Amino acid sequence: MLFAAIDFVMYRFQRGRYSDQSLTREGWLRATGGNIADLIQRTSPGQMFFLHRRISFVAWGIMYVDNQATANHVGVFVEDGNVVEALTSTGVTKRSFTEYVDNNSYLRVTKIPLTDEQQTSILKNAQSYLGAPYGWGTIGRILWQRISGHGRYHRANLPLYGDVLLLIFAAALPSLWWQSWPPVAWYVIGLYLLLIGTGALRRRRHRRKQKDKESESAARSEGIL
Predict the structure, then answer these.
(1) What is the DSSP letter of 5?
(2) What's the pLDDT score for residue 224?
(3) pLDDT by residue (tens digit) across 38-67?
(4) Sign of CA dihedral 142, 148, 151, 154
(5) In the prediction, which pLDDT does 210 show?
(6) Strands 106-109 and 91-96: what pairing?
(7) Parts of the chain with a pLDDT under 70
(8) Residue 118 carries which DSSP code?
(9) What is the DSSP-derived secondary structure letter of residue 83?
């Protein structure tokens, strides 16, 4: 896990994309009482919030697996300064946004223009999920998509692929000295490379289809089709 170790050190000591300067440039705000009170005051229901938690090994792991992201949690604003979010301990729950005051982590909030109808729909959906268990199955599926590179909506995560290959390679090395050591890991390396390659082709096809749809939509709006 060479690349993971390097990335964790960067996170732990707040370097690179994890630095205060980098997060501030991206629009993140430190989770102080004043900043959170201001966000509650100017954020309408239906908007999303993103969290960059410090310092948490689990939070870092989410960002590393999620293709070098800087957010490790997400939720939706509802009413009265409350948010609806999925927590591993309680499942989908509603609580005050002020729970995130720690003067250390960072937060971002979307500013998407929403109609009254859209707001009502988002709030209704959020309320309908309250009490639902945490989606471990969904997390497992997303993790597999990240490791295998088969998530259509995700970019290639080369450091993660490299770490997986290094682990498999380490498992294969003893077979060079001990004949009794099963050589299956060498075959796994080939299969994993094939998996990454097919994932890249799948993402490329998906991007091409999306581009074609956008071109067709633009042409229709201009009256060409």
Answers:
(1) H
(2) 55
(3) 999 999 999 999 999 999 999 999 999 987
(4) positive
(5) 84
(6) unpaired
(7) 68, 219, 221-225
(8) H
(9) E
pLDDT the model gives residue 75: 96
| 138 CB-near residues (< 8 Å, 6+ apart) | none
What would the two tokens of residue 78 be?
A: 């509802």
Q: Residue with structure tokens 């929403």?
A: 114
Supply 120's token pair: 């009502």
Whole-prediction pTM: 0.86
Kindly give the residue spans of alpha helices, DSSP state H, lying in 1-93.
2-12, 20-25, 33-42, 57-65
Burial 188-220 (b: 16+ CB within 10 A, else e): beeebeebbeebeeebeeeeeeeeeeeeeeeee
**Residue 170, CA distances (Å) to 82, 144, 187 in order:** 48, 21, 13
Q: What is residue 31's predicted lDDT score, i.e. its pLDDT?
A: 97
The pLDDT of residue 156 is 86
| Residue in the block written with tokens 């009794």 | 180
Question: Which residues make beta-bridge pairs with 74?
Answer: 50
For the record, the structure tokens of 170 come out as 């380490």
- Residue 94 DSSP SS3: strand
**2-12 and 57-65 helices, crossing angle to 10°:** 130
Which of 49, 48, 46 lies closest to 117 in space, CA to CA?
Answer: 46
Using left for φ > 0, alpha for ψ between -120 and 50, and beta otherwise, residue 32 falls in beta
